[in-house]
Design goal:
By secondary structure, this protein is of the alpha/beta class. It folds into four domains: about 210 residues, P-loop containing nucleotide triphosphate hydrolases (Rossmann fold); about 170 residues, Rossmann fold (3-Layer(aba) Sandwich), CATH 3.40.50.300; about 210 residues, no CATH class; about 55 residues, no CATH class. About 40% of the residues lie in helices and about 15% in strands. The chain contains 22 helices and 18 strands. The longest helix is centred in the C-terminal third of the chain and has 25 residues. It is globular.
C-alpha cells in the first residue's frame, strides 16, 4: 500500500545568476525588456514560462500602444476569473516607466460578483459594449465573456483596439474552438492588434494553436524555462519525478508528501482510475495522514492540523465547494502575499493551476495521470517561483501501479506510458535550446558562445551561450530548411514535433520495451510520419530538416543527461545506463560536450540511437521488477506483423537504400536497419498483392 520511492527522473540545477529578476531603468526584467522591444508589432506572440512576468510585460506593451501607437483601448482576456488579479493596478512610474497601469473597478469584469450563470454572462457582455463606447482605456474579462461579446457585438466592434489573450494555449485552430475561430476572423479583418501570451504553447493534442497562415503573421518573443530558472536569485534546483503505488493512494500519499515543504496537492479527477470516488473523503484522509485535525482558523477557514511533534499545519481546502469562496479570498489576500507562514499546504482538484501565484510553493504533488501535458506544465509552474529561503522545488506525479491481474491492465499500462511521455517532454522543455547547423571546415562559431579551448573548424564542436541558455552544435549531414516557414519551425516549434512523437503510444511501446525495434524505425520512419502529418504542405527537404532537428534535440537531451550522470550514453531496453545514485544536471552542458566531442557527430549516427533508452533505465528503477515484466508481457502480446502503412514507409526507404548503395537491402544482413528494410519491402509486396493500397 505504499509508493515506491526512487530518485527523481529529472533533476536540474541552475546558476542563480539573478538575471531574470533584475530590472532595467524602466522596471523591466529580461523577458519584459525583450518583449517590449517588439511593442510595435501588430501581432505578437510571447512564449514564456510561469512567473517570468508576462502580465507586466503586457502592461508595458499595452500602455505604449495606447499612448504612442494610436490604439483606442486594450482588452485583456484571461481563461478564468482568478487570473484577473494579475492585471490589477500597477504604479509602473514608480519603477521608472512613463505611465501607470490602471483598470477602473467597473471594467475588471473578473471581479464582478455572482456565479457565471446566464444572467451574469449577459450583464458582462453588456458591460463590454458599454466599455467600447466609453473613454476609458483598459478592460479585463474572461475568455468566455469575450467570446460571448464578439458573438453579440460583432467583430467590427473591436476595430482599432488591442486584444491581449492570456494563457493562449486554450485557443486552437479547430473549428470547434470558438475563440480560435474568432481570432481568425479578427486577423482576417486586420483592424486590431493582438498580443498572445502562454507558458506552454503546445496543446498536447493533434490540433495546432494557430492555423499556419495565421501563425506566420505573428512575431515571436521566446523566453525559455532555462533562461528563467537559471536567472533566479534563490531557486537553484528543480526535481521532477513520477512514483508508482499499489492499493489506495490515500494510504501511500504520506510517502511523498513532506509536511515540511510548502505544497499544492492536486487530487485525481473523480472519473480517473486513481480516484476513490469521494473527493471530500479523500481530502480528509490526506489531512489525517499529516496529523490530528484541531479545527479551523475563523478568519481564513484554513484547517488546523497538529503534527505528532506538536507543530500546526495550516491547510487550505479548495476541493469542498462550500469552502472555496472563503478559502480563495484568504489565499488572494494581498496583505499575506509575502507571508510564508500564511498557509502550509493547499489541497485542490480543478483549481490552483494556471496563473495561481503562491511564491512559497516548494512542491507540486499531482495524484493520478493528467491527460494534458499543458496542464502538467502549468502545475509545475506553481512551484517554480523564486522566493527567499527556497533553494529547491519539486514536481511529483503519484500514479497507480499497473496490475496485470486487473481487467484494466491495458489502460494502466497506457497511463504509465503517458507519464513517461510527460517526463520526457518536461525534460525537453527545461533544457537549454539547441541551434543546429551543418558541419563544415570553416570557422562556424557564433558570437557569445563558449566553444572551449579545443575548438577547431570542422570538428565535433559544441558552443554554449550561458546568458541565453542556447547550444550551437554542428552536425555532419544536417539538411538545411529551404523555406522561411520551415526555418521558423526549426527555430521555434521543435518541441511541438517532439510532443507528438513521445505521445504516440505505439512509438513509446516499441522504443521502451521491444528489443527487436531498430532505432531508425523510430527516428526516421515514425518521426518522419509525424512531421509529414503536421506539415503536409512543406517540401520533402523542409520536412527532413525538421525531422533531423527534432530527433537530434530529443536524443541529445537524453544522452547528455546520461553522460552527465556518468553512465553509458546509448542505453536501451534491458540496459541500466548509469548508477543508481542521482546526479544533478549541473553538468548538463558538460554532458552535451562529452556526448558530442567523443563522437564524429553526424545525423546518421544520431538516427541509430534509440531516443527512449535512458527513459527505460529510469522506468526500470521506478517500477517493481515483477510489474515491469508484466508490463513488457502485456505490450508484447499486442505486437503484430508489419502493418500496411509501415510496410509502405519501409519500402520507400528500401528504394532510397538501393539508390545510395546500388543494391536492395539484404534480409540476412547483420545490420538491423538493413534487415528491417528488407522485411518491410517483402511485407509491402504481400500487402499490395492483397489489395491493401489504393491504386
Amino acid at each position: 500500500m505504499t509508493a515506491k520511492i526512487t530518485p527523481p527522473s529529472v533533476t536540474v540545477k541552475y546558476g542563480q545568476t539573478g538575471a531574470s529578476t533584475t530590472a532595467n531603468e524602466f522596471g523591466m526584467r529580461t523577458m519584459q525588456e525583450r518583449a517590449y522591444a517588439k511593442r510595435g508589432e501588430q501581432y505578437l506572440l510571447i512564449k514564456s514560462p510561469p512567473a517570468s512576468g508576462k502580465s507586466r510585460a503586457l502592461m508595458f506593451i499595452a500602455l505604449d500602444k495606447l499612448n504612442n501607437q494610436g490604439i483606442k483601448q486594450a482588452i485583456i482576456v484571461v481563461p478564468e476569473r482568478s487570473i484577473g488579479g494579475s492585471f490589477a493596478d500597477e504604479p509602473l512610474s514608480k519603477f521608472g516607466y512613463f505611465y501607470d497601469w490602471k483598470v477602473e473597478p467597473q471594467w475588471n469584469l473578473c471581479n464582478a460578483p455572482g456565479a457565471d450563470d446566464v444572467r451574469v454572462a449577459k450583464s458582462k457582455v453588456k458591460a463590454v459594449g458599454e466599455f467600447l463606447v466609453s473613454t476609458d482605456k483598459t478592460l479585463v474579462c474572461t475568455h468566455a465573456t469575450f467570446r460571448l461579446a464578439v458573438e453579440e457585438l460583432g467583430i467590427e466592434a473591436f476595430d482599432g483596439r488591442l486584444i491581449a489573450i492570456d494563457e493562449f494555449h486554450h485557443v486552437s485552430a479547430s473549428g470547434d474552438n470558438v475563440l480560435g475561430t474568432q481570432l481568425g476572423q479578427l486577423m482576417a479583418r486586420d483592424n486590431v492588434h493582438i498580443v498572445a501570451m502562454t507558458g506552454s504553447y503546445f496543446r498536447g493534442d493533434a490540433v495546432p494553436v494557430l492555423a499556419a497562415e495565421d501563425e506566420i503573421k505573428f512575431q515571436t518573443v521566446t523566453y525559455t524555462y532555462y533562461e528563467q530558472l537559471n536567472g533566479y536569485e534563490h531557486l537553484k534546483q528543480l526535481d521532477l519525478g513520477y512514483y508508482f503505488y499499489s492499493g489506495r493512494y490515500t494510504d501511500a500519499v504520506h510517502e511523498v508528501l513532506d509536511p515540511d515543504k510548502k505544497t499544492i496537492v492536486h487530487i485525481p479527477n473523480v472519473n480517473s482510475r486513481e480516484s476513490l470516488g469521494d473527493k471530500l473523503r479523500e481530502t480528509e484522509e490526506i489531512m489525517h495522514s499529516l496529523g490530528t485535525w484541531k479545527g479551523e482558523d475563523p478568519v481564513t477557514g484554513f484547517h488546523l492540523v497538529q503534527r505528532p511533534d506538536g507543530r500546526f499545519l495550516r491547510i487550505a481546502d479548495l476541493v469542498d465547494p462550500a469552502r472555496q469562496a472563503k478559502t480563495i479570498a484568504a489565499l488572494k489576500d494581498p496583505a499575506q502575499k509575502n507571508n510564508r507562514d500564511h498557509v502550509d499546504i493547499i489541497i485542490a482538484l480543478g483549481m490552483a493551476k494556471e496563473g495561481f501565484d503562491w511564491i512559497w510553493c516548494e512542491h507540486a504533488l499531482t495524484i493520478g495521470y493528467r491527460n494534458s501535458l499543458t496542464e502538467i506544465i502549468q502545475i509545475i509552474g506553481r512551484a517554480t517561483r523564486d522566493a527567499p529561503g527556497k533553494p529547491t522545488a519539486r514536481f511529483t506525479n503519484l500514479i497507480a501501479e499497473p496490475d496485470a491481474a486487473e481487467d484494466a491492465v491495458v489502460d494502466a499500462v497506457n497511463d504509465t506510458l503517458k507519464a513517461i511521455a510527460a517526463s520526457l517532454l518536461m525534460e525537453q522543455v527545461l533544457a537549454p535550446r539547441f541551434n543546429f547547423t551543418p558541419r563544415n571546415t570553416d570557422d562556424n562559431r557564433l558570437d557569445g558562445y563558449d566553444y572551449g579551448e579545443d575548438y577547431k573548424p570542422g570538428g565535433s564542436n559544441v558552443g554554449f551561450d550561458e546568458a541565453t541558455g542556447q547550444f550551437h552544435i554542428e552536425i555532419k549531414g544536417l539538411v538545411e530548411p529551404e523555406s522561411a516557414e520551415a526555418a521558423r519551425i526549426c527555430q521555434e516549434d521543435i518541441n511541438e514535433v517532439i510532443t507528438a512523437f513521445v505521445q504516440d503510444t505505439r512509438t513509446l511501446e516499441r522504443g521502451l520495451f521491444d528489443e527487436d525495434t531498430v532505432p531508425e524505425e523510430l527516428t526516421q520512419l515514425k518521426m518522419g510520419d509525424i512531421v509529414k502529418d503536421k506539415y503536409p504542405d512543406l517540401t520533402e527537404t523542409d520536412r527532413e530538416a525538421i525531422r533531423q532537428r527534432a530527433v537530434a534535440a530529443l536524443t541529445l537531451v537524453q544522452q547528455a543527461r546520461k553522460a552527465a550522470e556518468g553512465g553509458t550514453t546509448t542505453a536501451g531496453p534491458g540496459e541500466g545506463g548509469g548508477s543508481d545514485e542521482p546526479t544533478t544536471n549541473t553538468a548538463f552542458v558538460d554532458g552535451v560536450r562529452r556526448f558530442v566531442n567523443v563522437r564524429d557527430l553526424d545525423i546518421d549516427m544520431i538516427d541509430r540511437i534509440n531516443p527512449f533508452g535512458p527513459a527505460f533505465a529510469i522506468l526500470s528503477k521506478t517500477l517493481d521488477p515483477k510489474i515491469l515484466k508484466q508490463v513488457q508481457e502485456a505490450i508484447a502480446a499486442k505486437r503484430t506483423t508489419i502493418p500496411a502503412e509501415e510496410a509502405r514507409d519501409l519500402a520507400v526507404r528500401a528504394v532510397k537504400f538501393k539508390k545510395e548503395r546500388g543494391r536492395l537491402p539484404d534480409i540476412t544482413s547483420t545490420d538491423a536497419w538493413e534487415k528491417r528494410l528488407a522485411e518491410g519491402r517483402l511485407a509491402f509486396g504481400k500487402h499490395k498483392a492483397a489489395g491493401a493500397y489504393d491504386e
